[in-house]
Description:
Strand content of chain A: 25-35%
Largest sheet of chain A: 7 strands, antiparallel
Helix content of chain A: 25-40%
Radius of gyration of chain A: 23 Å
Number of domains of chain A: 2
CATH topology of the largest domain in chain A: Glutamine Phosphoribosylpyrophosphate, subunit 1, domain 1
Number of strands of chain A: 24
Oligomer: homotetramer
Distance between the termini of chain A: 22 Å
Structural class of chain A: alpha+beta
Mean pLDDT of chain A: 91
Amino acid sequence: xxxxxxxxxxxxxxxxxxxxxxxxxxxxxxxxxxxxxxxxxxxxxxxxxxxxxxxxxxxxxxxxxxxxxxxxxxxxxxxxxxxxxxxxxxxxxxxxxxxxxxxxxxxxxxxxxxxxxxxxxxxxxxxxxxxxxxxxxxxxxxxxxxxxxxxxxxxxxxxxxxxxxxxxxxxxxxxxxxxxxxxxxxxxxxxxxxxxxxxxxxxxxxxxxxxxxxxxxxxxxxxxxxxxxxxxxxxxxxxxxxxxxxxxxxxxxxxxxxxxxxxxxxxxxxxxxxxxxxxxxxxxxxxxxxxxxxxxxxxxxxxxxxxxxxxxxxxxxxxxxxxxxxxxxxxxxxxxxxxxxxxxxxxxxxxxxxxxxxxxxxxxxxxxxxxxxxxxxxxxxxxxxxxxxxxxxxxxxxxxxxxxxxxxxxxxxxxxxxxxxxxxxxxxxxxxxxxxxxxxxxxxxxxxxxxxxxxxxxxxxxxxxxxxxxx
Amino acid sequence: xxxxxxxxxxxxxxxxxxxxxxxxxxxxxxxxxxxxxxxxxxxxxxxxxxxxxxxxxxxxxxxxxxxxxxxxxxxxxxxxxxxxxxxxxxxxxxxxxxxxxxxxxxxxxxxxxxxxxxxxxxxxxxxxxxxxxxxxxxxxxxxxxxxxxxxxxxxxxxxxxxxxxxxxxxxxxxxxxxxxxxxxxxxxxxxxxxxxxxxxxxxxxxxxxxxxxxxxxxxxxxxxxxxxxxxxxxxxxxxxxxxxxxxxxxxxxxxxxxxxxxxxxxxxxxxxxxxxxxxxxxxxxxxxxxxxxxxxxxxxxxxxxxxxxxxxxxxxxxxxxxxxxxxxxxxxxxxxxxxxxxxxxxxxxxxxxxxxxxxxxxxxxxxxxxxxxxxxxxxxxxxxxxxxxxxxxxxxxxxxxxxxxxxxxxxxxxxxxxxxxxxxxxxxxxxxxxxxxxxxxxxxxxxxxxxxxxxxxxxxxxxxxxxxxxx
Amino acid sequence: xxxxxxxxxxxxxxxxxxxxxxxxxxxxxxxxxxxxxxxxxxxxxxxxxxxxxxxxxxxxxxxxxxxxxxxxxxxxxxxxxxxxxxxxxxxxxxxxxxxxxxxxxxxxxxxxxxxxxxxxxxxxxxxxxxxxxxxxxxxxxxxxxxxxxxxxxxxxxxxxxxxxxxxxxxxxxxxxxxxxxxxxxxxxxxxxxxxxxxxxxxxxxxxxxxxxxxxxxxxxxxxxxxxxxxxxxxxxxxxxxxxxxxxxxxxxxxxxxxxxxxxxxxxxxxxxxxxxxxxxxxxxxxxxxxxxxxxxxxxxxxxxxxxxxxxxxxxxxxxxxxxxxxxxxxxxxxxxxxxxxxxxxxxxxxxxxxxxxxxxxxxxxxxxxxxxxxxxxxxxxxxxxxxxxxxxxxxxxxxxxxxxxxxxxxxxxxxxxxxxxxxxxxxxxxxxxxxxxxxxxxxxxxxxxxxxxxxxxxxxxxxxxxxxxxx
Amino acid sequence: xxxxxxxxxxxxxxxxxxxxxxxxxxxxxxxxxxxxxxxxxxxxxxxxxxxxxxxxxxxxxxxxxxxxxxxxxxxxxxxxxxxxxxxxxxxxxxxxxxxxxxxxxxxxxxxxxxxxxxxxxxxxxxxxxxxxxxxxxxxxxxxxxxxxxxxxxxxxxxxxxxxxxxxxxxxxxxxxxxxxxxxxxxxxxxxxxxxxxxxxxxxxxxxxxxxxxxxxxxxxxxxxxxxxxxxxxxxxxxxxxxxxxxxxxxxxxxxxxxxxxxxxxxxxxxxxxxxxxxxxxxxxxxxxxxxxxxxxxxxxxxxxxxxxxxxxxxxxxxxxxxxxxxxxxxxxxxxxxxxxxxxxxxxxxxxxxxxxxxxxxxxxxxxxxxxxxxxxxxxxxxxxxxxxxxxxxxxxxxxxxxxxxxxxxxxxxxxxxxxxxxxxxxxxxxxxxxxxxxxxxxxxxxxxxxxxxxxxxxxxxxxxxxxxxxx
Lengths: 471, 471, 471, 471
């Protein structure tokens, strides 16, 4: 998973474009916090600053001031298949049409095929990233095509998979969303500055205006000359393209930030409504409804409302718990969970608690939490999940899970309930989950729940260059 | 403000005492996150590891394993009057009775007087810390006293101010709480390991048991030989000592962690009850009650309950906002607040919102939040505060405010309401706040609300050695 | 300038190949100390660790142990035309024939032409390095050639310039030296491990044996199957290839380490003999001969011997002076020279001093040194240079000088003498310098002295991707 | 061993006093390179910046600019008995007479006695340094003495040991040299700025003038009011004080920088003369004289001159070898020596080599060097040492050796020759060494050669506070 952000100043006035992008990717860190970077186009000269780490640690005023220019793109990346530092984006290249920078949020399924094909034509690959594949294809496709947009259209035809990306040429900012529309990408505006972002929460942070979602299969190109679009499936109308799209349902369930809106549906509202529907499908006798901190809170509020039982707090999450926690022994791992969550004893004592979470993947943490609640006097603990059973691994990069990890593929609901020690367990049905998204115009990809891999399945992978550059 | 933690293994079995203290101070970081340290006593040899920064960044397995021993104390410190790195604790000294280590959470009011007096006897001071004063006094008082505990008793007589501290000698772990009981200090136990902590949330994290609060004016001393106590006012009974004490009311309002219990009163419950009382004192017509993230949530739940209006979410706090945010221009400062808080538009649109916060000091953030809510369609915004007007600066180190900073000293409630742009503004009365602490046995210090400085006022300060050691 | 080192274990026994390469590049740091890296081939899987900084700071035991494998190449690089961190070598790529790693010491003159040509075929470039050009050419040339060696032969035909490089494929270690033989490259052996190095001083350090110099235009390939060579000019005999070669004469004058041997001529000896010849060409009346620290010592010893005047010490170089010296004001720059050199007053007082240096480029430091010597009582200071006047910029990367910097292009010897404040000044003639290399079998490139650019002149440069990655 | 430097601006003009001290300690790093610091007095406010590491890495322009003031002292420290970072100087304290900063180069023999005595009066100690002892004594002695100088006089009476130190009060810069004059300390001047330094090489670097050596037992005090001196033995004349003094003879043999002058004797000259005398006492048949790099060069030049045999180069020292070399296995240790020294084969082949070193302590490196020379064809290797056999450990901090480490205490010269593999071995006699210092007016301490511990022997040590603060 990655966060993408691009901005272009279409006026002739000077602007702090790198700072705009900085605030943009800062607001998208929930999509990935392992590394970040910003590339700028300063009158045709490109510069990039990128590193492992958190956005606020990578950039300071001095660096941002050095990154002057009229267009910039940024990237924030989560842990993924790439080992070492070679996956840090944006990637900069020089091609026959000049400098190009790219930030991508993608899962290319035929990556090894493309790479092999390009290699056989003499290409070399310095990283394992999708971005390098896209740029290498683009560069070849640019020969004999009239402009960058048509070269990208050809590139989309070569690629099998799901993706959004933002690309910066020497005079344009271009955004691309895959024909399935699986990954979000939105267009915004503040004054003369146009912006592309994975989510509109970044626009709100910048006090910018959301114009619209990029359509599935759309190539949007912004320059001083204006905004133009090209479409993968040109024969369809906009309505059809949207209608035929399938956004990843996990964006609503977990990934996107609650204050974002994807395809005109508020993320928070979708979770709240899911909670209400869950109360209808799986009501329970309880005294207090709590959310699994922090991702279960929106659904828990809806569940409490649906049930007519008070929402409250029973668990606290320690805000100092980061990646660096020491977990070398079993006892320390147990302690690590204790460090992460604290029980409000007086709140849970002698109560029947319903705890609502967004999803249950392996169940280990839920099991610990239930035990903590009971150790602190909870009479009953009922678990309600705002998504169906995860029965299929996501091959589009949203969950790193394999079949073997997924309890729901080999256990019944009752067996899982028993394993985690809950008094009852209820998953919302896929039908109800989809109904909790009343305003969206496209379909959804729910492969992780129903095995329907809309964009197909990946080719097997081969081993890779390991570019280990410690910083 | 500081977090204190000490642990002593009273058995002959080996234990990871430094790891116990590590988890202890990890759980106390809400009391201070500027620096941290752990000192251990390994059979009379003392070692310390301390640095600026967060607990998880300062210690790793290698360091903790190197810190073997049977007793250890830790410290986590917030920003305070000390410049540079010389205030990092614990402090280690050698005295005529051997090695001593000290962690203190204190505000000594007559520090310059004591220092001058000791200097006139030939003492030298290498830091500006209270800890050095305490150790220097202790060392002199230890001449002619029968044991460390009595030397500490003499030291308490020399000191004017509020404090808790934990001290480690070559064979004992000692905890001291000032006669006002203004700063919390609790005793816990897990197996043969006894622990002292600023708050019992650290015991829960360690799966240890809370035994009791240290009494105001108590010197508790733990060794392999057992536990003994000495009292500043020996003539009183335990009940009287507690009854005459005055815990800082801001511990309940803001400082302590919600899952802690001070003087048998749950912090979360005290805030919830305050919210309920606030609903009675300052009800309002509204559609949704929200908490100011994150410190207002407990009171907001109580307020919503008292009012019979649903509690919900209207604001999100960005969990990636840390100390390093760039704020060099006015526009960037505005952006910084936007980065920190996000509005859930669909939740607040066309609604009358009541927002509950723990307290209002300068009001700048509240003002921004109200504007964001209104910009996003909130019809009305009513502010309710779970503490009275802060009219007096705290000279005991809890707030850094001076008179000049405090709007409540120069503005009426109506003027403040106008400044922050709220539709209505209500502060709980001090009387109701105190009533929301039904189970505590001691009094409270509420000097910041009523100007009654129970422990007196400080002497004026003189300038100091600036020991600037960048790391 | 760069230092190259490669090693391959041709036995089946395990060996610490990365440590061998570590010691190799450690011994080659005089050729470049800005960054360093090591890539290993572990049974077809490639890994690299590279960073800005000094070799000893970049690698530790943990890192070297992680770099297991049977073949490795290393690189140590000086400051050059590449901005930022994208020039750090070795570079790793995946090509149609698998993983490839490359370390190069090169100056490609037609780099922009090649890049443009490859871009027009759809290639992309992520760095400004020669290495990426070489690898991109190699990869295309590998299509339709029978093996890597023949692909490299084609690549050599595409490249105009001077270079040595070591390349690692999944089963071979390959070394290439340009047809001019301008950059050194030698073959060595210790047990079953074969090594390629820029200089044989690295073999001595490793207690390995020097086998021979790689011939100009030779492609040497080492694997478990044995050692094979291919030649750029296959028609010639080895003797002819060497005879037609032209090693950079600055290797003897300044670049190479005194204990190295290039084309069977000891570097130290060549400098000593130059000093002796200088005494014949430019004798002087003096009481003491000193070397300009440290690079003038070998020639000074020969000069003293030729003159029959004692060699001694008059100047010390501060061994703590590094890159980090503070030089923001004029006074600080003057101080910086004073920090770098100290005069032994009692040695120089009332004496006529002859100071011998390897070369004089801008003369600034020499001027300061002469003044220091005179300020400390030297009666006369005579400057003797072990190389002719530098009248032409080197376009092969050895000196960064441009025409404008070179005093000898616009001033007579007498004017330079006057500028630096010497009592006399003598440069060795190019003829005598060449005669001081009696045992070498090839010619020399002395373009900087005579303007005879044996490998041609470079094409004009265009601007570039700036990949600024701070560490 | 430490380097001391202090400077005071006695005019009213602004000056960069911290930069002066920076250049001063930069020039004294040969006396200690483990840590460094600078303290400044800015109109009574003191500030210090100190860290582990090298001077050039610790300070930058920003830091130095922040350290404004009219007086400053610096310190550079070698590895010593102090563990961790608590020995980093200067040390700052507040005393009854205000701020004091101290840099010391000392070995106090009765440190534990003093500490115990002060502890019994109630003092506490936070470090294991001599500096803290000196300051604690000074502070007590200041009560009832008329001024700081007399308090220091009392302090000198309390201390048994050898030392020089520079101390900064709120209005003075004070230098103290022990009554034995064992550690050097000199006074210099540039314009209105007076300076104290361990060696005058720092004055040359700053283009300042050496005024004189501080006398044994002198307390020199510099302020805007002028320069005053007080003497430990006031009854003596200056001539007698100097005559009765005993400077450490190892300053001439090894410690001081060759361009320094101690007691009017040039260090370089003393070593050169020692070499000449060595040629008379232990001549040898040889073809080439070389110095053990780098410390043997001065004596080797004198030896070659005395013998009438050419001085030349046979060994090179790698300038990149620092503290960080990897030496975990035996083979790596051997390699480490190979990395450090390179043999110039053509110079040593078939020759009889005389190698001159300043001293031989354990002989391990010498043994390796002899083997390298012989492996590279040297016919004979004769070792000559410019100091007598080291038979006694130095208890004054110059050598860390214990009796057990010193081969000369248990082996004959012949046995040592055999151990190191030399063809002959000659040590200069103590008599000849002393005669090589013709111009000095004081005596010398040669305890390491003759066991005559002029300042007495130390009391046994007890264990200590370990203040381990990693950076």
